[in-house]
Specification:
about 170 residues, 3 domains, three-stranded mixed beta sheet
Length: about 170
């Protein structure tokens, strides 16, 4: 899955030795503390998407579980996941950058969701335009007047009584 443009660089990086790093400017005392020198491959957008979604401890399912604890459904569209991966690729932060992007994106929703009427948090491809865009879908509640009910009654304007029930819209 390594892109062709990176494959030539990656092949060269596999041949790097300690003397090459010293020639590059690193001090020998530091290089001597490195038992193994390994060249890493650059990640592609598809690799970052896999990292976000596929491993057992992937970060997107972790965030979904976090929101589930507050009875909020967290949804990501494929376009949003791709946009997040592309942003990490542009930042050149690799997979570690994915967490900071998601933290910044979901921060407001994580603080607003607990104890609120938010039912769904949807991240879609509009996230490309404004990285702070997160759609919070709130439950709507209506006060329905109950005739002949005895519970939930409140007195209005002195003698008038009105009984209401809080019902969630479907």
């Amino acid at each position: 899955m390594v892109s062709e443009e990176n494959s030539a660089k990656d092949l060269l990086m596999q041949e790097v030795e300690a003397r090459d790093l010293i020639h590059f400017g690193m001090i020998p005392e530091f290089i001597g503390r490195l038992p193994v020198i390994v060249g890493f491959h650059n990640l592609t957008t598809n690799m970052l998407i896999q990292i976000l979604t596929e491993p057992r401890n992937a970060i997107l399912p972790q965030y979904k579980k976090l929101f589930d604890m507050d009875n909020v459904q967290l949804k990501f569209t494929l376009g949003a996941v791709r946009a997040i991966a592309e942003k990490a690729l542009a930042r050149k932060t690799g997979a570690r950058g994915l967490r900071s992007i998601l933290e910044g994106l979901l921060l407001e929703a994580m603080f607003e969701a607990p104890g609120s009427n938010i039912e769904n948090v949807e991240i879609n491809s509009q996230v490309r335009a404004a990285w702070s865009y997160v759609e919070l879908q709130r439950a709507t509640w209506n006060y329905v007047e109950l005739h002949g009910a005895t519970s939930n009654c409140v007195e209005l304007h002195g003698a008038e009584r009105s009984c209401i029930e809080l019902r969630r819209d479907a």
